Amino acid sequence: MTEQTTLGQRLADIAARPDVITAFKAARSGFLAGRRLEMKELADELGVNRATLFRWVGGRDELLSEVIWSVAEPTLRRAVAAAPGHGARRIATVLGDFAQAVNTSDAFRQFLRREPERALRLLTTRAGSMQRRFVAFIADLLTEEISAGTLDPPLPVPELALLLSRITETFIYADVISGEEPDAAKVVQASLVLLGERPEQ
User: Fold this and answer.
1) Which own/partner contact pairs does 170-178 have at CB distance under 8 Å and 24+ positions apart?
2) Which residues contact 98 (CB under 8 A, 6 or more apart)?
3) Locate the QsdR TetR regulatory C-terminal domain: which residues (predicted)?
4) How far from each other are the two terminal CA atoms of the chain, in whole angstroms?
5) Residue 48 near residue 55 (C-beta atoms within 8 A)
6) Element (H, E) at 92
7) Please, where in the chain does CATH 1.10.357 lie?
8) pLDDT grade, residue 182 (50/70/90)?
9) Which residues lie closer than 8 Å to 60 by C-beta, 6 or more apart?
10) What are phi and psi of 36, to 5 degrees?
11) 13 or 189: which carries more pLDDT confidence?
């Protein structure tokens, strides 16, 4: 057995103490496993009281928003990296691929079925940070294509980014909003129309 120095033991003790990062990782792991996030259960898992957990993360909604964005952002970046072409078709493809990834995510669909009202509130309104970040991500894509001379948008970037986010949300949350099946292909078609390009038949 390796001898442990006094300082080494102190460092190990500090590393073993739960903190906000530990809490976030545990919440994210539970979300991806399809479990409902319960603050009391998470606090018990971490060996801290609820007051400490709330001080770290701010609350259940804040924590859920951060967890979901931590999954959504790399999904968006993968869609950007894989999207061919340029201009309107590239942006529409990114949004369609993102919608398809969300629509086929077991963890996300379970969350949406289990807590539809909270999901829509956190993901599509100012109550959560997801929509603000999603709109900003789309705005960056638009700006990139405009700067490259591959897109001449019909609307200012802020308004266009918001509308594109709404289109994507509509066909991701279609089953909750209208009872219809989510349809990533319609994200592509509607985005192309909004961007001034004819969809492929």
Assistant:
1) 171/99, 172/99, 172/102, 172/103, 173/112, 173/119, 173/120, 173/123, 173/124, 175/112, 176/112, 176/116, 176/119, 176/120, 177/120
2) 72, 75, 76, 79, 168
3) 86-196
4) 69
5) no
6) helix 87-103
7) 60-194
8) confident
9) 37, 39
10) -70, 135
11) 189
The pTM for the full model equals: 0.86
* Distance in angstroms (rounded) separating the CA atoms of residues 57 and 24: 8
C-alpha dihedral sign at 102, 87, 192, 157: positive
104 touches 168 (CB < 8 A): no
Residue type, 162: L
Single-letter amino acid code for the residue at 46: L
| CATH code given to domain 60-194 | 1.10.357
Q: pLDDT at position 195, please?
A: 95
Check residue 17 and report its DSSP letter.
S
Q: What whole-number distance in Å separates Cα of residue 53 and Cα of residue 49?
A: 7
The single-letter code of the amino acid at 186 is K
pLDDT at 61 exceeding the cut of 50: yes
Q: Give the DSSP letter string of 104-140.
A: T-HHHHHHHHHSHHHHHHHHHSTTSSHHHHHHHHHHH
Q: Say whether pLDDT at 27 is over 60.
A: yes
